[in-house]
Amino acid sequence: MISELKNNIIDNLEDILKVIKRAQVEDDFKRIDYLLEQKGIAIEMNMNKSEINLPTPSYQYSLPKGSAYYLRGYNAIDKEISLIKNCKYRDEIFYLNK
User: Fold this and answer.
1) What is the DSSP code (8-state) at residue 48?
2) What DSSP designation does 60 have?
């Protein structure tokens, strides 16, 4: 009885984890779509590097929400897309489809 209960709990937790991971992957795809749009704008405006005068230290600076993200430049946007696509958990997507 207790063993069966443990198995049910584990199964439920695995299902919850699958839902969370799927949601994260979905959010990543939406983010990549947004970044590709912003990259297109940056390319059209010939902004390969950031056009923002960053305060020192620059790693503490972030654009306000809703800002023109393309101002970061398409090189930075490409890097962010690459980082999202190469996340470690992406290898687990196959596990989610079992």
Assistant:
1) -
2) G
Residue count (the chain): 98
Q: What pTM did the predictor assign? A: 0.68
Residue 79, number of CB atoms within 10 A of its CB: 12
Cβ neighbours around 43 below 10 Å, total: 14
Answer for the pair 63, 72: CB distance below 8 angstroms, yes or no. Answer: yes
Report d(CA 33, CA 86) in Å as an integer. Answer: 16
Give 49-92 pLDDT, tens digit per residue: 876 665 555 455 565 666 788 999 999 999 999 999 888 666 56
Give the other-Cβ count within 10 Å of 31's Cβ. Answer: 13
CA dist 54 and 76 (Å) reads 14
- The ranges assigned to domains in the chain are 2-96
